[in-house]
Design a protein that fits this description.
- The complex is a heterodimer of chains A (255) and B (236).
- By secondary structure, chain A is an all-alpha fold.
- Chain A has helices spanning 2-13, 16-35, 39-68, 70-77, 83-113, 117-143, 147-175, 182-190, 193-205, 212-251.
- Chain A starts with a helix and ends with a helix.
- In chain A, 43% of the residues are buried.
- With 236 residues, chain B is of the alpha/beta class.
- Chain B has one domain: Rossmann fold (3-Layer(aba) Sandwich), CATH 3.40.50.
- In chain B, the strands form two sheets. A six-stranded mixed beta sheet of chain B has the order 6-7-8-3-9-10, with helices on both faces.
- The two termini of chain B are 27 Å apart.
- Classes of the chains: A mainly alpha (255), B alpha/beta (236).
- The A-B interface holds A 3-4, 7, 11, 69-72, 74-83, 252-255 and B 11, 45, 48-52, 69-73, 75, 77, 79, 82-87, 93, 96-97, 99-101.
């Protein structure tokens, strides 16, 4: 399996889009901190940018890459290799490359400008989001042979988690404003990895006014320490569940 | 050596394979013939685990292949139209497979020499012609000295010289007692290569006989005539 990961990783890292993505992250991170004197404010701006761009690039790039590797997958499937190792290698390669791109692109400037735990938290958050959306891409790509449908589905997933979901939550809040929704909100926010990412950072930053509703509830309910653990584990689940589902599908797929 | 028991596979409403059973032994070389879309390639892909049958079991050396993967080291497969990563070079593909399979014996480079592929090692797979792709597929299939060779339309698209070289290789490997499963529409070629014949139609095996028996039964001494008689005659 390690050998296959090596081939995939080398192939992805030679991809111009990954290089462009890294440079882009590098540029915006530098820009944000050069324009903003207050690192806290800079971090918040960056958080919103990262939570918008990283999921988009991760899921679309991964989906397209998986479709483009269909020949590679076919070639390997007829060789004495477990299907499981092929699929997991593909995931590891994608997740690894996206993580690397994030660490180089956003991680290095963050380490230079923000010498605090929050900076490290931001890097961890970006990595988790990258890996989660690579995992969701595996689901999008395994469901259908049709590349256009698969990419369409992954765009919908991104749109749902980054825009539609928030609207849905707001709608619920207004409709049921007479009821105590705090506990329900915690559960609802755990259903969106992007929200979880936001909570992870905001808990650490202690800017309760800027936290938004879910963040405030989260902090009140769990306190910083416990809240971090809960949101972190929820994010790990967001990596594992889609990946395991796609693996099950792939094991039974006709090639 | 390969045994299939009641294999069925549906693609939607289409019955690609309908309750197929067959038992083959080492040293046989089986020609799989039948009209287009009769399920030959699906059957082959079932043996390779690329297509998962809806029901039935396939055994290789008396062991079920379901959920297995190690058994594939005993099989060399040459696909009908090999698909390879476009951006990889011929040399890279071959080196990668050598690296992944790492068989104990040194890789068999006979076909690479016969097709003089070494000179093309720096060409990208995406730029190759159909024939050259076939050459690469054939070289890979024979490279790891497998006990079973599955060749799906091996000579389609090959030039006469290459196709002769491939046939010679098949003959040589046959002498070593390997099991061959060959599909082709070129019957004259199967006549030289095959010892047994399997005729499939609409996902069903209509006939499984030795070449001699088939010729004796139909009273024809050319395979093409014998098959033509089968195809025009209703099922026995």
């Amino acid at each position: 399996m390690i050998k296959i990961v090596k081939y995939i990783l080398l192939d992805i890292l030679r991809n111009k889009i990954v290089v462009a993505y890294t440079l882009f992250l590098f540029a915006i991170t530098f820009c944000v901190f050069s324009l903003e004197d207050n690192t806290e404010k800079g971090l918040l701006t960056l958080l919103n940018l990262i939570l918008f761009i990283v999921p988009l690039v991760s899921i679309i790039f991964s989906t397209i890459y998986i479709y483009n590797s269909s020949e590679f997958i076919e070639l390997l499937v007829s060789q004495p290799i477990r299907r499981k190792s092929i699929w997991l290698s593909l995931f590891t390669g994608l997740a690894g490359a996206l993580t690397l791109a994030f660490i180089i692109g956003a991680g290095i400037p963050l380490l230079i400008y923000v010498r605090s735990v929050t900076g490290l938290m931001m890097i961890l958050n970006g990595i988790l989001i990258s890996v989660i959306f690579a995992s969701l891409a595996m689901v999008a790509a395994v469901r259908t042979r049709d590349k256009a449908k698969g990419i369409g589905f992954s765009i919908l997933l991104w749109l749902f988690f980054s825009l539609v979901y928030d609207g849905f939550v707001l709608f619920l809040l207004f409709q049921f404003s007479d009821y105590p929704l705090e506990k329900a909100m915690i559960f609802i926010s755990a259903l969106n990895p992007i929200d979880l990412g936001r909570i992870l950072i905001l808990l650490k930053m202690d800017v309760s006014a800027l936290m938004g509703y879910t963040g405030a509830v989260f902090k009140e309910f769990y306190g910083t320490e416990k809240g971090l653990i809960v949101s972190f584990s929820a994010m790990i689940l967001w990596i594992l569940l889609p990946l395991l589902y796609s693996l099950r599908k792939f094991n039974r797929k006709d090639l | 050596m390969i045994e299939a028991i009641n294999i069925s596979k549906n693609f939607g409403k289409l019955k690609a394979l309908n309750n197929i059973s067959i038992a083959t032994g080492a040293g046989q070389s089986i020609a799989l013939v039948g009209p287009n879309g009769c399920g030959k390639t699906t059957f082959i892909k079932c043996i390779l685990g690329m297509v998962v049958p809806d029901s039935g079991t396939i055994k290789l050396k008396n062991e079920s292949i379901a959920a297995g993967w190690k058994y594939r080291s005993m099989i060399g497969y040459m696909p009908q139209a090999g698909r390879y990563p476009d951006q990889m070079k011929i040399g890279q593909v071959i080196e990668m497979l050598k690296d992944i399979r790492q068989s104990a014996s040194s890789p068999d480079d006979d076909l690479i020499k016969a097709f003089s592929l070494k000179g093309l090692y720096n060409k990208r797979m995406g730029t190759l012609s159909g024939g050259t792709l076939q050459k690469v597929s054939a070289s890979i299939a024979f490279m790891f000295d497998p006990e079973v060779l599955i060749l799906d339309e091996p000579t389609a698209g090959l030039d006469p010289v290459a196709s002769e070289a491939l046939k010679e290789k098949i003959m040589a490997e046959k002498q070593k007692g390997k099991l061959f499963l060959i599909t082709s529409h070129i019957l004259s070629e199967l006549e030289e290569l095959a010892s047994h014949i399997v005729y499939m139609q609409d996902g069903v095996i209509m006939l499984y006989k030795t070449m001699e028996a088939l010729k004796a039964d139909t009273g024809e001494n050319k395979l093409s005539r014998a098959i033509a008689q089968l195809m025009t005659k209703p099922a026995q």
